[in-house]
Each structure stands twice: as C-alpha cells, then as structure tokens.
Amino acid sequence: MTIKYKKKLGQNFLVDKNILKKIINFSLIKNHDFILEIGPGSGNLTNEILNKNPKKMKVIEKDENLIPLLLKKFEKKIDILNCDILKIDEKKLFENKCKVFGNLPYNISTKIISKWILNLDNEPWFEEMYLMFQKEVAERIVSKKNKKSYGRLSILAQWRLDCEILFNIKPSCFYPVPKVESTLVKFTPKKNFIKIKNIKNLEKITSLFFNQRRKKIKNVIKSLISENNITDKISVDLNLRPQNLSPDFYYNMVKIIESN
Question: What is the pLDDT of residues 122-151, one digit of tens each?
Fold first, then answer.
C-alpha cells in the first residue's frame, strides 16, 4: 500500500530501525503494561512495541488514509482510534495507568503536551511518556532558569513532571526528511511537588511575567501585591527578569495568591 504523506498534518515517520529499538530499550515495556501511541503513522514504532508483548495497546491516528494500512498490518493486536488527540479525553482510554509513546507532529506538539499538563489530576493517568519533539521545543521543556530557552513551557511542564532529554534524532532517520533535528523526551509524574489549587492560575501568572520577559519584574510584582494584598509574603529582587526566577518561585507565587 502506497502511503501519501500529508504535510498539513506534520507527518514525518520514523523509519530508522536502530532508533526505533533504542526508544523501546529505554522504555522497558513489560507484559502487563497498557500502551498508548500517538500518531503511529505507518506503524514502525507500533511493531517494535508489540514485540515486547504489552497487555493492551491503543493508537490514535488522525489521518483516516492510514487506518487501512494499520488494520492490515496489525489486525486485532491493537485498538485503533481515528480521531484528533486534542479533542479526546485521554483519561478515559484505559482503566489503568499507561505508558505513552508519540512522534508528535511539529505543528501541534506544544498544544498536545500543554493540554496534558493542564488536565493533570492529583493522580496522573499515565505512568510515563516517551515523546518526540522538534529539538528546540524539547530544550524549552527541560530548560532551567537563566537560559534563553527557559520560559512558560518549562515552568508548566516541570510543575508536575520530571522532564528528561534522552537523545537527539537526526532528520535522516525520518521519511519524509524534516528540516530540523528531533529529540526524545521522557516524562515521569513527580511524587513531590508544590501544591496549587488550579493550574490555570499558573498559566495566568507565567503569562503576566513572560509577556514582558526582557523587562525587570518590579512592575508585575507590584501589581500582584496591590491586587492580592500580599505585601509581606513576597521577597524577591525587583531588578531580576522573568527568566532569572526558578520554577519554584512561580509555583509559590500561585500558592500565596490562592491562599490569600
């Protein structure tokens, strides 16, 4: 079956067998695991995952033209959902926590991970995730303060998740060949984290600061203090800039405002 690639869906299928096996070796799939794969494409990674005999596997593929190929290749070994990952409730896919794999389309990768972060409950629906991003996006996710790549995505992702870059993947490992390098990132839910009531408040706070990321934070801090009457609870150098403040600063800021 001839595969027609859809540029508008950001399709670049991973075809390098060594990289496929390397991903699986990192993940240590067991026979009792529930697996969710986002964007299986032609099923190359799917096949490697199935070789590890997981208990149950579901894949989400938006491109309806790829469904016949996946059905022919895997028959009843997997459950195939022809839908948009941004429009489903991933928490209802399995009765148990799952491991997630995905070669995420570049054009919506930040939307996908942001959606999952914003929908995290007290008890996450996944055990761990292995996701491929454009290298620049991966660097933003794991970035630390004082780096150019550090920003809102870094702070949101690191609130509830340990984020670790595993390795980079060359463009030649994909077909069609993309113009940029990719990176595999591992996400694991944190057991210990600063409790906040509503992550939407973290979104708002980080937006306030990073909309003026090159400016000193004094104006934002002063507005937050006056609006929330928390003069004695914030101690920070007003000459700093947003990228100089650790993620914990932002989490604690939200916690203070929520408890006021």
Answer: 889 999 999 999 999 999 999 999 999 999
